[in-house]
Amino acid sequence: MAQQPPAAARPAETPATIDVAGQCVLYVGGRQALVPHIRSAVERRQGRLLHHDGGLEQAPRILENLVTQADMVFCPLDCVSHAACLRVKRLCQRLDKPFLLLRSSGASSLVRALRSDAHP
């Protein structure tokens, strides 16, 4: 029987209740054109968004500083380098930060993960 990865390392499959009010959210990877939509989704829930493109144009070495600032980290599986995703995952484990994989880089994937009864 295959062992399931820990919940924090599995793709978000069902709407989770994640309260980002007053929190700093780091989004690593994704499509640059969607960052304003992602920022809006986080800010509507009174959170603050940090974004790193996963190493396309931004240096991977700044990831540690961003993870240190973040309260939680999201990483879409379909639009990020494997190296960046692994680096962020290890940093989150070392710094004891929540790390959530998203099925896709679409803004709706993050919105589903952020969905909360308290913040429609």
Automatic annotation (TrEMBL):
<comment type="similarity">
    <text>Belongs to the UPF0751 family.</text>
</comment>
<dbReference type="Pfam" id="PF10087">
    <property type="entry name" value="DUF2325"/>
</dbReference>
<dbReference type="InterPro" id="IPR016772">
    <property type="entry name" value="UCP020408"/>
</dbReference>
<protein>
    <submittedName>
        <fullName>DUF2325 domain-containing protein</fullName>
    </submittedName>
</protein>
